[in-house]
Amino acid sequence: IQTDFKNGTTIFAEEQTNGRGRSNHIWFCPKYKGLLLTILLKYTMKPDNLCLLIGTIAVAITEMVRESFLLQAEIKWPNDLLIGGKKWGGILVTMEKNHKKQPIFLIGIGININTTETELPQKMRILPTSIAIEKKEYVNRIFFARTLLQYIDKWYLILRDEHFKYITEKWKEYCVTVGKDLIITDNGKEYSGKVIGISYNGGLMLKLQDGGTKIFRGEHATIKS
Q1: Would the pTM of this model clear 0.90, i.e. be above it?
Q2: Phi and psi at residue 170, in whole multiples of 5°?
Q3: Which single residue of 62, 106, 108, 216 could bond 73 by disulfide (Cβ 3.0 to 4.6 Å)?
Q4: Tens digits of per-residue pLDDT, 27-77?
Q5: What is the distance between the alpha carbons of residues 138 and 127, in angstroms, rounded to a whole number?
Q6: Phi first, then psi: what are they for 51, rounded to 5°?
Q7: Cβ count within 10 A of residue 10
Q8: Domain of 113: which CATH number?
């Protein structure tokens, strides 16, 4: 990133030719049918809190869809956006350096808005859907985008003011992963147990079969089942 920019600068795209998610999973969205954007954020935080930034954005989007579109949106930790177990969006956060060597966070968001069932690929690890499919009606993308940014701005201020407990409590409320028995791979090692919550910095808390508790960070851990 070579030039200065205003904090919160948002770049929209109408087409994505090489979309990807965590662990290089493929993300597909037809031209003019979704919402594809990247938010550039100047935010000073500890590296351990990167997962919390992902969760804050996920909470903002989920709350917006619940309140503005009356859909039972949920989060699959850490970054998948679901309705009824089907994925309609995702978040990818990366960190770059600007020309002054200062950290810049790039928040990539991809959302299926007006994608039809025939346009959605079915050979995916999580079955896909779109807002229009769930609402059974066409959705105004401009209204969706404007409302979404208002909610993201609201929740970013909550994060900036370090109300971490409030964020993680809301994340836990929306998260379908909490309460499930899972196998999680972390740096090549597998752990089995029951998800009991989300830590103060956005990590997934797993009650292990031996009685201990382990916290997993989103950039390292992968849920197997």
Answers
A1: yes
A2: -70, -40
A3: 62
A4: 678 899 999 999 999 877 776 678 999 999 999 999 999 999 999 999 999
A5: 20
A6: -65, -35
A7: 16
A8: 3.30.930.10
